[in-house]
Amino acid sequence: MNSGFFASAVCADAWETHLSRQIITLTTDYGTNDHLVGSMKGVILGINSDVQVVDITHAVAPHDILDAALIVNDASRYFPSRTIHVVVVDPGVGTERRPLLVTAGSQYYIAPDNGVLSLIYEREKDALTVRHITAEHYFLQPLSRTFHGRDVFAPVAAWFCKAWQSASFGEEVEDYVRLSVPKPKADGNVTKGVVLRVDSFGNLLTNLTPDEIPALITNDAKVRIRVGNKEINHLSQTFADGAGAEPIALIGSNGALEISVNKGHAAKALGVNRGSEVTVEVG
Which domain holds residue 227? Predict the structure, then answer.
């Protein structure tokens, strides 16, 4: 056999295998200084060594369910169909809160029933099934009361992608927890929103989008954006449009209004944080 042909065939098979590997993502507030994330990965690979484990982030603000909800909603939409997303931000670990297996659109989510999937529920409300995971034979034993990421969520994800039999994990429920995520409020030509999160660069991510304020993507529209003690009178296109420590406003990669300081930290410069009011006046 021609050695070049054989090598090409092996490479093609390896590439096809790589492309077909099942993906499990991890989003936690565990950080990476301890053994926690590594233990979860060990459990997953011990059950199903064919999966590809992808870290979305382990730097969710500790116990911050809304922060995790925003991150998972933004990131998960870019993954292939049949990706399984494991989300463990779980201040109620060991209590009566339920573990859930959620089918949402073409993807799956495994998480505690504490509202961390609220934005997924809203986004995929027409293609949503939520199950309470009660099949404890899928759990790692002995079951710790303080580390369900390792003992419940990780093994459930690994076993689930072996057979895809969601009904075997538990019954459907409809009383799952939903967060009350702040919504913009319009009064005439003024719309009030809030900062939903501050990213690692200090940018202020708001809940204001062109859906509520079309002028945010209208050329030459006159807008006045107020945050903290600052007023911004135009929209920029890129972070680099900012000069010095002057804050700018732009539509970020998630489609919502952001406030930024070029090569600076907008939250510190403006003295604001999550929950701070942001107003947009048009005209």
Answer: 185-282
Q: How far apart are CA 180 and CA 59, in angstroms?
A: 23
SS3 182: coil
Distance CA 224, CA 59 (A): 34
For residue 214, what is the domain's CATH number?
Answer: 2.40.30.90
**Phi, psi (rounded to 5 degrees) for 196:** -85, -35
Contact assessment for residue 83 and residue 70, using Cβ atoms and an 8 Å cutoff: no
Cα–Cα distance for residue pair 226/149, rounded to 1 Å: 41
Contacts of 271 (CB under 8 A, 6+ apart): 228, 229
Please tell me whether residue 19 adopts helix, strand or coil conformation.
helix
Token pair belonging to 98: 């339920």
Helix (H, G, I), strand (E, B) or coil at 116: coil
Residues 44 and 97 in one domain: yes
3-state secondary structure of 213: coil
Total-model pTM: 0.89
243 belongs to a structural domain: yes
Per-residue pLDDT of the chain (283 residues; tens, 9 = 90+): 555 555 554 444 444 444 468 999 999 999 999 999 999 999 999 999 999 999 999 999 999 999 999 999 999 999 999 999 999 999 999 999 999 999 999 999 999 999 999 999 999 999 999 999 999 999 999 999 999 999 999 999 999 999 899 999 999 999 999 999 999 999 999 999 999 999 999 999 999 999 999 999 887 778 999 999 999 998 999 998 877 788 999 999 999 999 999 999 999 999 999 999 999 999 8
* Residue at 176 is within a domain: no
Same domain assignment for residues 163 and 193? no
Domain count, the chain: 2
Q: Nearest 5 degrees, angle CA 77-CA 79-CA 80? A: 120
